[in-house]
Amino acid sequence: MQHFDLDTLATFLAIVDTGSFTQAGERVGKSQAAVSTAMARLEDRLGVRLLNRTARTVSLTPAGDLLCGRARELLEIERRIVEELGGLGERRQVRLGMPDDYLGLFGTCVMEKFSTRHRDISVQVVCEFSQDLEQLVARGDIDLAIVTRRDGDRQGELLKREKQIWCASVHARPETAAELPLALFPENCRARPHILRALETAHRPWRIVWVSSHMQSVQSAVMMGFGVTALPQSALTFEHRVLTEADGLPPLPDLELALMTAPGISLAGRKLAAFLRAEFGEGAVAAPRAVEAGIG
User: Fold this and answer.
1) What is the Cα–Cα distance from 133 to 100, expressed in whole angstroms?
2) Which residues of the chain have pLDDT under 50?
3) Closest Cα to residue 157, out of 140, 144, 171?
């Protein structure tokens, strides 16, 4: 007897919810081709057509409509089993990785909200660059990670799109320099190419005056007025002055933040992954208000 693959059902529901094979792939961390192959195999196994596909639309057949309801029930049962089993046994540890510029968005919520709800689970946060976190997850050294995707990469499950914002100190105007002074993370930072490419495209001269692997160091350089940087919107504070095209800074593309899980992730890890999807997967979280006013 063959059994349903819950990952395939999750892919099917992603198509239903997004109305697009491409967007479904982004949600579940698969290429469009992989999504199409999974659906073809599912339809072949069931012997019925589940989706009506045209060049622009995707809709459910009667069989697809029936499967949609049942698939949601199965995935809900899985979620509840994980929830119930996760409440048994001794206190467990889950290792969650993320770049340190996402600590304000994800770290605080996890350490306060998740840990309060699940006192039997101890969360250890590991801060590294995305490429290093991917290797740690692949080896099973950490249980899950939130990473910045490379351009065109579909690795992991799309969790959230985050705006990049130019910012400077409220006490200085480094953006008025002929060559824009930049405070950046090193070359292995995946946001850095977006920043430099935008400046090159806009023909804005620049020079790098500060490089550090640590968020606090980059923040200090900005706060002391040494340079301008670009940060995830969620990392801005009242000490930052937002810079826009009116200040001569080009627009920046959004970053895609993906959730990656280790092979054989524990029940406690799956519970944390489900929490992250519920908290961040369906919409942006309001960022702290940043100061936009000029210097008096």
Assistant:
1) 12
2) 283-296
3) 144
